[in-house]
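Supplementary Methods S3. Complex input for the iron/sulfur cluster-bound model.
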Amino acid sequence: MNLTLIVWRQRNSASAGEFVTYDARDISPDMSFLEMLDVVNERLTAKGEDPIAFDHDCREGICGMCGMMINGVAHGPRKATTACQLHMRSFKDGDQITIEPWRASAFPVIKDLIVDRDAFDQIIAAGGFISVSTGSAPDGNAVPIPKENAELAMDAAACIGCGACVAACPNASAMLFVSAKVTHLGSLPQGQPERYDRVVKMVARMDAEGFGACTNHGECMAACPKEISIDFIAQLNRDLLKATLAPPPEGRSWRGA
Ligand code: SF4
Ligand code: FES
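Predicted complex, serialized as structure tokens:
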């Protein structure tokens, strides 16, 4: 395949970026999208040019590092597929492909296609954890959990923290990500002690990090490579309402209530 790439190049967060056009010739349809970028970068490096910076780690669709906008779509044209799991056979010979970083003020560009997703880490640090001791695996299996709760928690735990939901949302909202984390932990007995503190603190942190509000566009769910459902946002809103309309007595947190 011979392709034309139009790639966002930006030296660092302080500099202005621009689109640069590259020819990507003799690309195998069996390559992944990231392998195609590897080939382009090897050729750029051989010519003494700066390779295109992009984030990646597992290349198996599980770490959430590889997000980028491909022809204006988060993670590219295949539904429920991360950029690292996207193959070049999803494109046609002669195609022009535009590649950009996530566009959201809470995710500043570090270089080229790499954005700083520290804001997600800050939201997790605010409440995305449990404090009870869960013991070893046999101890965990000894805790009876209704099947529907276990399945709900597993579905929510599929979130890989890639940020595509934010990039796809017209408001750059992080509600799908936060709702997945809140629902994952809030569906399990181990997550109950901090359940209402968690939702209040994670939503407050989300707002403080500069993410927008959710206005139910649903673009987040459409872009999510793990098909996280916006039903989880409704679950988050139910817990947030309970925590804010019926707060614990003054001087006590939900945790101790
Ligand atoms: S909800 Fe989906 S799109 Fe958003 S961070 Fe999680 S896996 Fe990525
Ligand atoms: S590199 Fe890990 S999900 Fe793509």
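The mean pLDDT is 95. The pocket of iron/sulfur cluster (ligand 1) is lined by residues 64, 159-165, 176-177, 180, 223-226, 228 (CB under 6 Å).
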